[in-house]
From TrEMBL:
It comes from the Eukaryota. The keyword DNA damage does not apply. It comes from Hevea brasiliensis. This is Enoyl reductase (ER) domain-containing protein. Its cofactor is Zn(2+). Keywords: Metal-binding, NAD, Oxidoreductase, Zinc. Homodimer.
Length: 379
């Protein structure tokens, strides 16, 4: 336990990386963290990684001061009233979209959009609409119901998944968001068929996870589109068979893709967060049965515009949140697959950083010099 942590009346004082305003460097502050309330657990964060959506929200969202971070692993430190699923010492992954297991969506095989614990955008806890973090009485807001850029955090039990204690927490934290989201988009949302052709726009962690999923499904061609030439060699590791840098071509990228795939890909994936690319992704698909899946979180212009003819010709556009996984039901099996070496996770980790270097992780992602930076908390 960090020497900076003290417990008074079950309120913990610990260090957290606080964002005080959009785009401002995070500041390591001593924060007070309240005990877990009913159906909540308090977690000692072991490892957390920076996701692109953290960066997007940090640059643009209006709720501050805030503690970002949602892709994390840790150990249960204490439990609140009514908690029976977890015990102190359990190893867990945090998740940004929960699973209550009782609502209409959770009991449906068609959806993973929990009506009770879905995306939390207000920066407060579900149970009482209050924060658990504060500095000298001033509330510090949560992010995505997790806020893992802190030595300790409090989450609803529906936003945590118990995993095997044998799994390395410093690796599997990536399965709590990015890697799982890409694999699920390939397997659950698109249901990629063997021998099919795939094009992926954006070769970050999510896009390369789609590639990994497509490769494991036996896709014959997996085309990666990215303006960062440094992604080319790394992309091969995850199954990319053709790399396209749009800056190297004068003709529209959709035409390049059609040339490679003999008329258009069976599946296309938009993993950038640029709604303007969705039309390009749709045009890169084949007539009749082409499927486009969008996964990216846009910084600007959230509205989508596409010519109706693209759909009249038989193309389909689908959205994907967390790859269609029900986190509590499905994440343990993904961890098992990792432990059996059936899926890759380690190769996504390009940097390992101590907590005090968290701003370096943000800079690396802004500059396109990393896939995932894993931030290790003090022991």
């Amino acid at each position: 336990m960090s020497s900076s942590i003290e417990q008074i009346h079950n309120v913990i004082t610990c260090k957290a990386a606080v964002a005080w305003g959009p785009g401002e460097p995070l500041v390591l502050e001593e924060v007070q963290l309240s005990p877990p309330q009913s159906h909540e657990i308090r977690i000692k964060v072991v490892s957390t990684s920076l996701c692109r959506s953290d960066l997007t929200a940090w640059e643009s969202q209006a709720i501050f001061p805030r503690i970002f971070g949602h892709e994390a692993s840790g150990i249960v430190e204490s439990i609140g009233k009514g908690v029976t699923e977890f015990e102190e010492g359990d190893h867990v992954l945090t998740v940004f979209t929960g699973e209550c297991r009782t609502c209409r969506q959770c009991t449906s095989v068609k959806s993973n959009m929990c009506q009770v614990l879905g995306l939390e955008r207000r920066g407060v806890m579900h149970s009482d609409q209050r924060t658990r973090f504060s500095i000298k009485g001033k509330p510090i807001y949560h992010y995505c119901a997790v806020s893992s850029f802190s030595e300790y955090t409090v989450v609803h039990t529906g936003c945590a998944v118990k995993v095997s204690s044998a799994a390395p927490l410093e690796k599997i934290c990536l399965l709590s968001c990015g890697v799982a989201a890409g694999l699920g988009a390939a397997w659950n949302v698109a249901d990629i068929a063997e021998g099919s052709t795939v094009v992926i726009f954006g070769l970050g962690t999510v896009g390369l996870s789609v590639a990994q999923g497509a490769k494991l499904r036996g896709a014959s061609q997996i085309i990666g589109v990215d303006t960062n030439p440094e992604r080319h060699e790394k992309a091969k590791v995850f199954g990319i068979t053709h790399f396209i840098n749009p800056n190297d071509f004068e003709e529209p990228i959709q035409q390049v893709v059609k040339s490679i795939t003999n008329g258009g890909a069976d599946y296309s994936f938009e993993c950038i967060g640029d709604t303007g690319m969705i039309t390009t992704a749709l045009q890169s698909c084949c007539d009749g049965c082409g499927l486009t899946v969008t996964l990216g979180v846009p910084k600007l212009k959230p509205e989508i515009s596409a010519h109706y003819g693209l759909f009249l010709s038989g193309r389909t556009l689908k959205g994907s949140l967390f790859g269609g996984w029900k986190p509590k039901s499905h994440l343990p099996s993904l961890v098992d697959m990792y432990m059996k070496k059936e899926i890759q996770v380690d190769d996504f980790i390009t940097h390992n950083l101590p907590f005090e270097d968290i701003n370096k992780a943000f800079n690396l992602m802004k500059e396109g010099k990393c896939l995932r930076s894993v931030i290790h908390m003090p022991k």
